[in-house]
Amino acid sequence: MNTFLLLLAFFAFCRCYCRGEITQMRNLSSWTSCSSQCWCAHDDKNRVYGRCVVNKLEEPVEFNSSRQLHFLSFADNGIRVIPREIFTNLHNLEFLSLSNNSIEIINEHAFKGLTNLRILDLQNNNLKEWNGDPTGDMPFLEVLKINGNEGWIPNQHILHMPELKEILGVTWSSHCSACDLLKIPGNETMSGDEEMGDYEEFSGNGLSGEGEISEMKCHVTLEEFYYYPKAVNYGVSAQFVRQGFSPQCFCDFSSDCYHRDVVVPYLTKLYDFPRKLFLSQYALGGLIVVLNMSVLIVIMTSRLLRNNISFVLVGSMALSDILIGVHSVMIAKYNIFSDSNVKPRVVMETDTSTCTYMGMVFTIGQVTAVFTSLMLTVERYLVIVYFQRCRGKVKTRTLLTILILVWTGAITFASLPLFGVRKLEYHRWFQCTMPFHTGKHLLQTSNITLSISAIFVLLYLISLGLYILIFCYARRSSMQFGIKREARLARKIAVLVSSNFILFTLPTVLLLVYVYSFSEILDAAESFPSMRSLFIIGGWLPVTCFNLNSLANPFLYPFRHRRFKKEIRSIPRRLRNSVSHSFYPVFATAQHFSLRTSAISHQLRQQFHSFAPRRKGENSLHVDADVRHGRGRTATV
Questions:
Q1: Alpha helix (H) ranges present in 160-208?
Q2: Is 485 within 8 Å of 460 (Cβ atoms)?
Q3: pLDDT of residue 290
Q4: Which of 96, 401, 598, 630 qualifies as a FRET site for 187, CA 20 to 30 Å off?
Q5: Nearest by Cα to 326 from 297, 358, 352
Q6: Given a cut of 60, is residue 277 above it in pLDDT?
Q7: Largest separation between any pair of C-alpha atoms in the chain
Q8: Alpha helix stretches (DSSP H) within 201-339
Q9: Who's near 561: CB < 8 A, 6+ residues apart?
């Protein structure tokens, strides 16, 4: 029986060797029993290697050669609990293996007395609790192996152990498993407010088995961990870094572990407030659509307004603003801040077709709004200045032709990214506004869109210049009533165009700076609040300014115009007339039927009244005849 147990211990020990628990053993002598359940062997330096086969640890471990015991293995047993002070007499032990058990609890002072222990192997257990502070029990522990203990994370007591250099195989999430934590040399335990410095290449002589300490692939410090570690709660991994340990699974910045544990918490914190701000676009976009749809319906249903050149242009602008409102509602849901799991680079590479169609809607609305504002200004200039000097008027057919060309050109330009022309693309990172890019990279910007945006600003400046000429001419011709009346209308349109100029130029400039200098702006952000303000100013504010412009347009001209307000008040009357005209045959038939029924009823009543007295007279004659006949019979008797 003892021979069988000895062979079992020997084969188990060899298996541990094959797995790398011992990387070098020197000329072990024959195995002999050194305890009731353990066998030992010596190397050429007279160090003792022990292997024990037990089901549970209840009593302190004792050996005949405990002073020379160098390596001790309790691997591949059914141990569940490590009790207190179970290894008190093993002061010279340097390597202890408790791997491949079912250990769940390590009691306080379980390793008391292991003052020279350098490597502790707890791999492939079910560790849940490690009570107490093991620093005093194992003051020289350098390597802790905990692969295969999912759900257990080293606590602060373990991370503060002064000589601990490696914690191998830590699993703290489904994305970060079997990660090695290596102590950065010369960097002892740090507080959360301390900053990491530069460190030299680490090469130490320690034990991994009996070899050297694992090679450090990268130095992950708080500065390299990600931006602004003080402002973001990065969780467990940040605690490791603060204690001076470098997670080697973070060396690959494209790994899922780094992304989930570092990038996502940062972006979640960064996007939180802008995402809440974008929720306001639901209400803003809804109001824009309702108000401008009302303006468009009133103009289309009024013959008087349909024949007015200015209101035809106002109707075109209302249609443009409706498109801006639709984009506002869509961007409230599909903005970049709604998904904190995606980095800017990934967004640029994986934009969906949704952004393309959203960008088309926005671009069509903005391009047509710019040209419609210019046409409103030119129309006022022609009416007040040019046609006062030479007789003439703007023809409706000519205006409609120009509007059709403007809308056709806007749709064509907005559709270029859809067909891949000039590699133009809409990107969600820039709120699907204009086709600013020609590729998947942030720096692949389009000079075409930049030039077109500059032309739009120039067109607004031309409009403002024309209004200055209009007002100067109106002041010189103030005695003419017609010019004064047209000038008042021009002032209202001037307010509209000026508002469009401000609320178009400001967000356009912000967008251009945000798009074409994005990398430089990121580098200039010195704090987390400044970084968040950058995304608000460059992402949320331009879209909001465009939407406020579309929201204000109905109030700046149509709702202030006397004729438009009169048409609004006449809507109930026109609805009644329309309903009456639509249902006139029904009403006429019903009225004819009612009159016919009344006539028949009246005729019947007259016949009934004329028939009743005649019947009454006939009845009285019959009664008199009967009386006379009775009297005659009485006389005869």
A1: none
A2: no
A3: 96
A4: 96
A5: 358
A6: yes
A7: 177
A8: 222-225, 236-242, 256-258, 264-278, 280-301, 303-306, 309-334
A9: 489, 492
With 0-12 / 13-18 / 19 or more C-beta atoms within 10 angstroms meaning exposed / middle / buried, residue 525 is middle
In angstroms, how far is CA 468 from the centroid of its own chain?
45
Q: List C-alpha distances in Å: 630 to 623, 624, 634.
A: 11, 10, 6
Q: How confident is the model at residue 151 (pLDDT cuts 50, 70, 90)?
A: confident
Residue 208 has pLDDT above 50, yes or no: no
Better-predicted residue by pLDDT, 288 or 441: 288
Assign 3-class secondary structure to 19-41. CCCCCCCCCCCCCEECCCCEEEE
Task: Count the helix, strand and coil residues of the chain and give each as a percent rounded to the nearest 5.
Answer: 55, 10, 35
Give the amino acid at 146: I
Residues 231-247: tens digit of each pLDDT: 788 878 888 988 889 89
What is the per-residue pLDDT across 311-370, written as a single tens digit (0 to 9) for each? 999 999 999 999 999 999 999 988 888 876 666 666 666 666 788 899 999 999 999 999
Residues in the chain: 637
Domain segments of the chain: what residues? 28-171, 263-572
pLDDT value of position 134: 93
Scored b (16 or more CB within 10 A) or e, 530-554 reads: ebbebbeebbbbbbbbbbebbbbbb
SS3 245: strand
Enter the DSSP assignment of 594: H
Strand order through the sheet with 166-170: 32-33, 38-42, 48-52, 69-73, 95-97, 119-121, 143-145, 166-170, 179-183, 245-247
Residue with the larger pLDDT of the pair 273 and 448: 273
* Packing angle, helices 353-381 and 447-476, rounded to 10: 20
Sign of CA dihedral 560, 561, 563, 564: negative
Residue 182's H or E segment, with its range, is: strand 179-183
Tens digit of pLDDT for each residue in 498-531?
888 888 888 888 888 888 777 777 777 778 888 8
**φ, ψ of residue 157 in degrees (nearest 5):** -60, -45
Per-residue CA distances from 419 to 357, 363, 413 (Å): 12, 15, 11
As a whole number of angstroms, the distance between CA 338 and CA 352 comes to: 15
263-572 architecture in CATH? Answer: Up-down Bundle (1.20)
3-state secondary structure of 626: helix
List pLDDT tens digits, range 391-434.
556 788 888 999 999 999 999 999 998 888 878 888 877 788 88
Buried b or exposed e, range 218-245, using 16+ CB within 10 angstroms: ebbbbeebbebbeebebeebbbbbbbbb
pLDDT, mean of residues 563-570: 88
pLDDT of 206 over the 50 cut: no
Half-sphere exposure of 337 (CA within 13 A, CB side): 20
Mean pLDDT, residues 372-399 = 75
Q: What CATH number is given for 28-171 in this structure?
A: 3.80.10.10
200 DSSP assignment: P
Residue 175's contacts (CB-CB under 8 Å, 6 or more residues apart) are: 256, 257, 259, 260, 261
If one counts every other C-beta atom within 10 angstroms of the C-beta of residue 144, the result is: 22
Q: What tokens appear for 60 in the block? A: 């302190």
